[in-house]
Design a protein that fits this description.
The complex is a heterodimer of chains A (about 450) and B (about 400). By secondary structure, chain A is of the alpha/beta class. In chain A, about 20% of the residues lie in helices and about 20% in strands. The chains are: A alpha/beta (about 450), B mainly alpha (about 400).
C-alpha cells in the first residue's frame, strides 16, 4: 500500500484554456536545441550550418564537462546557429527531414547491463541531460551515485498536461526507463502519484508515494522534501516522466526517439489540445490559425515557471507544454480599488472570493509596483516545506551562504517558490532571487 | 478616463530625470499609480501575478478601520453634548464630531505623507503605502481635544524616527502610530492623560453639567472606583469617553472580521492577544489583592484600548513577529503585559500601547528562537545521516 502524504499549503490557479484529452498530430519541420535551457553549461559547438544530422548526432558539449553531450532531437539539416549578446549560443535550429532517422545505439536490457555501460549509453546518445540533480537543478554528474532517483508522475502547475494520460500511452517504455534509473541509484525509483489517481499503470522497481493537495504537490522538490529531504552534501537525481519514456525507448529499441506528447493550452488558444511531436519543436506551427488576436505572451512551459519565447520560439528541453496568455501592457483606472469580481487573488481581498470555482483569463501585468517586504505569513500558505521562505529569501538577497545552508537552501529550487512569487504583495522577483542564491553556492562549492 | 490618461502621459516626461519637475518624481509617481495600475508586465519568473498589491492591502486595512472612525465621530459629538447637557439631534452630533475629528485626520495625513514623499524622492523609490494606515491609526488613538500642532509634530516624529531612520517602510522596529502616541505621552503628558481631555471642549471648561465626569473607565478603575465603571453594554457599544477610535468594541470587532476574512490581519495575533489578556485577568482574579484585580476578564477586555490595540496595532506585519509560531508568543505576551501594566502601574492608566511597543522590541528575538529551532532540527537530521 502506497503511503499517502497530505499537502495542505498551496494554491491551484484555475485558468481558462485547458487542453482537451485528444492527441492531435502536427506537421512541422522546425526544431531547435537551446543551450540556455541547461543551467551552468558552457557549450562548445560541434556542428556547422548545413551539416546533415541524425537524431542522436552530437551538436555540442559542455566545456566544463566534455563527457556530457547534447544531441539532435531529429534528423535533418542544421539550418541556423543563433548567437545572442557576447556570442552567447542561443539556439541550434534544425530543419527536420520528412522521415526521422536515428543513430543506432543498440538494444540492451537494463536489468542485466553494467551500470557503467548504461551511463555510457545515456551519455553517448545525448539522453543524459534529462537527468538533473538536486540541489541546483544542473545536469547530473555521471561520476556521482545519488541517494535516490525521483520521478514525479503528475504535474499540478496551472494547465499542466496530464501525465497519467501521457504515460498510459506508453507504459512499456516507461517501465524500461524506470529500470534504467533504478540501476543508476541501485534502489527502486521514488515515484510520486496523485492521490485518487486510478488510471496510473502498475510498475515494478518503484516505490510509489501518493500526494494529496494543491499545487505545488506535483513538484518533485516538494516530494523529495516530504519523503527524504536533502542534507548538505547529498544528491538526488530527478527525471521528468516523458524523459523516462525516451530513456526506455533508447534501451528497448536502440534509437533516440524524442517523441513527446505536449499540450498547447492557455486562454488565448482557440482549440487547446494535446499534440504528439518531438523535443525542441517550434511553436509557430501550433499557433498558426489557432490563437486569438491581441498582444500575446508565448510561454514554453507553464505560466509560473515557463520561459518567455518569441512567436517562432521553441519548446524548452524540460518543458511539455506551450501556454498562450494575453499581455497585460495597459493602464487600469483605479484597478487596485475596484471590487474586483474578475480579479484572481489568493488573499480574498477582492470580491472574486465569492466565486471560488471560477476559471480566469490572467494576463502578464504585475498588478502593482515593487515594494519593501511588509506582509508576513502569506508565503507560508503556499509553501508546503518545513522551511521559512521569507527568511531564506532574505538570506539569498544578502548572499549569506552559511545562513542559506542553515535555512535549507539545498532542499529548494526556484520552481518551489513560483507560487510565493505569484502571491507576493511586494511584487519582487523571488524565483530569480532563489536562483541567484543557488548559483552563488554552486560556484562557491566548485 | 482616456483624457486623464493622455494628460498624464503628456506631462510625465517633465517629472523624469532631467525634466522640469524632476524633484517631484516620486510625488507624480504616487499620484499616477493611485489613479492607474501601471502597465508594467512580467519579464522573468512567474508570468502571471496575483491581483493584490500594497495599495489594495493597505486600503483593506483602512476599510477595516472605518467602522471605528465613524463611531468615533459620532461618539465625539455624543460625549460633547452629554457634557454640556444640551439636547442634540443625530446630524448635530455628527456635525460636531466631524468638526473635531476631520482636522486631526487631515493633519496626521498631511504631516506624515509630506515626510514620506520627501524621503521617497531622496531615496529614489516609490512612495510606500504603509503610511495610509499609520495616518489613520494616529487620529484614532488620540484624545479628541489634542492640539493639532501636537498631532503634526507626533506624526513627523513617528515617520522620521520611527520609520525612516531604520531604512523606511518594512524595516522599522516600532509601530509608527504607537510611537506617535508614545511621543505625546512622554513629551506632553498633560494632553493625553487626565479626565478632561477625552471630551470635545471639556478641557476648555465649556459648560459642564453638574456631576459629569469625563473620566474614562480606566481612570475610574485605577482610582479604585470600580462601581463607577459603565455597564458592559456601554463598554461594548462604546458610549464612553476615550480615544477617538477605541471606544466601540463592536466597530473594532467588525474591523477584525474584515481583516481576518481577507487574510490581511493575523488572526493568530488577535486570538493569542485575547488569550494573553484573559489569562492575566484570571490570575488577578485568583489573587484579588485589590478591587482592580477582581474585575472579570470580560470587563478588562472591553475597557480601554485593549481590543483596538490587539486588532489594529499588534497585527502590524512589519513590527510583529514574522513567523507563525512567533506570532502566537508575541500576541500572547502583548495581551498579557497590556493588562498587567494597566492594573499594576498607577502612572499609566492603559498598558496596551506600552505592551505592544515592548513586544515590538522583542519580536525579532522571538523570531530568532523560532527560526533557530528549525535550523537545529535540520542540523540534527543531517548529523544522524552522517552517523548511519
Amino acid at each position: 500500500m502506497a503511503q499517502t502524504i497530505k499537502i495542505k499549503n498551496g494554491l491551484n490557479i484555475k485558468l481558462i484554456g485547458e487542453a482537451r484529452k485528444e492527441i492531435c498530430s502536427i506537421e512541422t519541420e522546425h526544431f531547435a536545441v537551446k543551450p540556455t535551457d541547461f543551467i551552468g553549461v558552457l557549450p562548445r559547438l560541434l556542428v556547422n550550418e548545413g551539416d546533415i544530422v541524425k537524431a542522436g548526432t552530437p551538436l555540442f558539449t559542455d566545456k566544463y564537462r566534455e563527457n556530457i553531450i547534447f544531441t539532435s532531437p531529429v534528423s535533418g539539416v542544421i539550418e541556423q546557429v543563433c548567437r545572442g549578446e557576447k556570442r552567447l549560443l542561443e539556439e541550434i535550429r534544425i530543419k527536420a527531414s520528412a522521415e526521422i532517422v536515428s543513430e543506432n545505439f543498440g538494444v540492451d536490457d537494463p536489468r542485466v547491463t553494467d551500470r557503467s555501460a548504461i551511463i555510457d549509453k545515456l551519455l553517448k546518445s545525448g539522453t543524459w541531460p534529462v537527468i538533473r540533480q538536486r540541489p541546483y537543478s544542473t545536469i547530473a554528474n555521471p561520476d556521482d551515485t545519488p541517494k535516490a532517483v525521483y520521478v514525479s508522475g503528475f504535474d499540478t502547475a496551472p494547465l499542466a498536461p496530464d501525465n497519467t494520460f501521457i504515460i498510459s500511452q506508453n507504459p512499456a517504455d516507461f517501465q524500461v526507463g524506470i529500470d534504467v534509473l533504478a540501476r543508476l541509484s541501485g534502489k527502486p525509483v521514488q515515484l510520486g502519484v496523485q492521490a485518487g489517481e486510478t488510471q496510473f499503470p502498475e510498475l515494478d522497481n518503484v516505490v510509489v508515494t501518493r500526494y494529496a493537495g494543491p499545487h505545488p504537490a506535483g513538484n518533485v522538490g516538494i516530494q523529495i522534501h516530504k519523503t527524504n529531504p536533502i542534507n548538505k552534501g547529498e544528491i538526488v537525481w530527478i527525471v521528468n516522466p516523458q524523459d523516462v519514456i525516451i530513456i526506455g525507448r533508447l534501451f528497448s529499441r536502440g534509437v533516440l526517439d524524442t517523441s513527446v506528447i505536449i499540450s498547447f493550452c492557455g486562454s488565448e488558444v482557440i482549440s487547446p489540445a494535446y499534440y504528439k511531436t518531438r523535443k525542441g519543436v517550434s511553436v509557430s506551427a501550433f499557433a498558426h490559425g489557432n490563437v486569438k488576436g491581441g498582444p500575446l505572451r508565448f510561454i514554453s512551459g507553464n505560466v509560473l515557471t515557463g520561459a518567455r519565447i518569441k512567436p517562432d520560439g521553441y519548446l524548452g528541453f524540460y518543458h511539455s507544454q506551450f501556454t498562450m496568455i494575453p499581455e497585460g501592457n495597459y493602464h487600469e483606472f483605479f484597478g487596485w480599488a475596484l471590487p474586483g469580481l474578475n480579479k484572481f487573488s489568493f488573499s480574498k481581498s477582492f470580491f472574486s472570493l465569492l466565486t471560488p470555482n471560477r476559471k480566469y483569463r490572467l494576463n502578464t501585468n504585475y498588478n502593482g509596483g515593487e515594494r519593501a517586504y511588509v506582509i508576513t505569513g502569506m508565503y507560508e500558505k503556499v509553501f508546503p516545506m518545513d522551511i521559512y521562505p521569507m527568511q531564506l529569501i532574505k538570506a539569498c538577497l544578502a548572499g549569506n551562504i552559511e545562513l542559506m545552508e542553515k535555512l535549507g537552501i539545498y532542499e529548494v529550487d526556484e520552481e518551489d517558490f513560483a507560487l510565493v512569487e505569484f502571491i507576493d504583495t511586494s511584487k519582487t522577483e523571488i524565483q530569480q532571487i532563489i536562483r541567484n542564491g543557488l548559483d552563488l553556492i554552486r560556484k562557491e562549492m566548485s | 478616463m482616456k483624457a486623464l490618461r493622455n494628460y498624464l502621459d503628456k506631462i510625465k516626461p517633465h517629472f523624469r530625470e532631467g525634466g522640469k519637475f524632476e524633484k517631484l518624481h516620486s510625488t507624480f509617481d504616487a499620484f499616477e499609480t493611485f489613479l492607474f495600475v501601471p502597465d508594467k508586465t512580467t519579464v522573468k519568473g512567474s508570468h502571471i501575478r496575483d491581483a493584490i498589491d500594497m495599495k489594495r492591502t493597505m486600503s483593506v486595512v483602512i476599510v477595516a478601520m472605518l467602522p471605528a472612525l465613524f463611531f468615533g465621530i459620532w461618539n465625539t459629538g455624543y460625549q460633547h453634548f452629554l457634557s454640556t447637557g444640551q439636547q442634540a439631534g443625530f446630524w448635530q452630533i455628527i456635525g460636531y464630531g466631524l468638526q473635531k475629528v476631520i482636522p486631526i485626520v487631515a493633519v496626521s495625513y498631511i504631516a506624515g505623507l509630506g515626510v514620506e514623499f520627501v524621503f521617497a524622492q531622496i531615496r529614489k523609490h516609490e512612495v510606500n503605502e504603509g503610511y495610509l494606515v499609520s495616518g489613520m491609526l494616529i487620529p484614532l488613538v488620540m484624545p479628541v481635544d489634542i492640539p493639532l500642532w501636537m498631532v503634526a509634530v507626533a506624526s513627523i516624529f513617528a515617520v522620521i524616527i520611527g520609520k525612516e531612520v531604520f531604512g523606511g517602510t518594512g524595516m522599522n522596529v516600532f509601530n509608527p502610530a504607537l510611537l506617535a502616541r508614545a511621543f505625546i505621552f512622554f513629551a506632553y503628558p498633560a494632553k493625553i492623560t487626565g479626565d478632561t481631555i477625552w471630551i470635545g471642549g471639556l478641557s476648555k471648561g465649556q459648560g459642564v453639567v453638574d456631576g459629569f465626569s469625563g473620566a474614562t473607565p480606566l481612570s475610574k478603575a485605577a482610582a479604585g472606583a470600580i462601581e463607577q465603571i459603565p455597564s458592559l453594554h456601554d463598554l461594548f457599544f462604546g458610549f464612553i469617553p476615550g480615544s477617538i477610535g477605541e471606544t466601540s468594541k463592536l466597530a473594532i470587532l467588525i474591523g477584525a472580521l474584515i481583516l481576518i476574512i481577507t487574510g490581511i490581519g493575523s488572526w493568530r495575533i488577535m486570538l493569542s492577544g485575547l488569550l494573553g489578556g484573559i489569562s492575566i485577568s484570571l490570575i488577578f482574579n485568583a489573587f484579588a489583592a485589590n478591587s482592580y484585580m477582581t474585575l472579570s476578564p470580560l470587563t478588562q477586555m472591553l475597557m480601554g484600548s485593549f481590543l483596538f490595540g490587539m486588532v489594529y496595532m499588534a497585527t502590524d506585519p512589519v513590527t510583529a513577529a514574522q513567523t507563525n509560531r512567533g506570532k502566537w508568543i508575541y500576541g500572547f505576551l502583548a495581551g498579557f503585559f497590556a493588562i498587567m501594566i494597566r492594573v499594576f502601574n498607577p502612572a499609566y492608566p492603559e498598558g496596551t500601547m506600552l505592551a505592544i511597543l515592548l513586544m515590538n522590541a522583542f519580536a525579532p528575538l522571538i523570531d530568532h528562537f523560532v527560526v533557530e529551532a528549525n535550523i537545529r532540527k535540520r542540523l540534527k537530521r543531517s548529523a544522524t545521516v552522517v552517523k548511519s
